[in-house]
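User: Second chain of the day. Same drill as before.
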Amino acid sequence: MSAPILKALEAEGYTTPTPIQMQALPIVQKGKDLIGLAQTGTGKTAAFALPILDRLHKDRKHAGEKSCRTLVLAPTRELAAQIAESFRAYGKFLGLSTAVVYGGASMHKQKQAMFRGVDILVATPGRLLDHVSQRSIRLDKVEILVLDEADHMLDMGFIHDLRKIATILPRERQTLFFSATMPKAIEELAAQFLDNPEKVAVTPVSSTAERVQQAVIHVDQSKKQDLLHALLSDKSVKRALVFARTKHGADRIVKHLDMDGIAASAIHGNKAQNAREPSHYRHTELVSTGNSVNAVAANPAQAQVRVRRASTGSPLFANARAGRQCSHAASAAMPTRQAKNAAASTTRCRLVDPTSICGQSLAQPMPCNA
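Assistant: Same format as last time:
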């Protein structure tokens, strides 16, 4: 690594590379394509950002008007913004340019940021194609392509956008492909983008973060709100992240929690970006003053999706990354013991009797083997 990058890492408090960084860095530095199986929190952003910054620094050239040398695709605007900030932090002594484009923000400002061209562009697929169609972004100068959280992009229906983007990019490029899980559909997508890639994995496919303790609580659908209230009323809970199946469900959960005196806010796709960011900041401020919950609309119906939810972005997992033991409790109305046991085995959860949390009134007639 170049001296300015090492200086930035020292300023960020980085001392020892993580397993994904140790495996991926040499491969990326050699210019080879890569498949990286790693969850958020394992240091995968640095695993691709550091060698990219090092390469761009050592081989400086202008990308050209409305162009970029490195393109990073991310499934959500929040993740795109985080990745861009990481590039800026690691490369703050290099003088390289970074831009980020995503939906819900001003197209005009994004066009201005891209007009002279940038070294690194982080984008969500849909907004990137909007710019391409308006000729405000060109992709013919891309030297390095990164797909981050590819499984999440597939879940969100970006497959057609990704395929369209692939046809616009130069054939001669380096491609880095990161995913928390590797189902067959992701393998097929990787085959379309990668050329003889090397593969690294730091956690088993569909495994959850080791420091996150998980539990499945079998409770009747009508009692789930009461159970959630009981869980969040525990004084040991300083921050919580709740996933709802639908956007309306997230809003309904927030309404009930507010009525119970638990400060809550919702983030989901129906909210504009300027409404989502203040919600995040407000949640952060409430962390130190009492119980708060951030209700996020998601559909963790599939086991592998729930694995990623348990391993990405939540305050619980942020604590786990800092070395603290954490809890991640999931309540669900599962009608059969077979379904309940399957959920526990798939996500490595322990089964918890709801009566141990908030009394006999929440219990199912069928006993729960903890």
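Residues 279-325, 360-370 have pLDDT under 50 and may be disordered.

User: Great, on to the next one.
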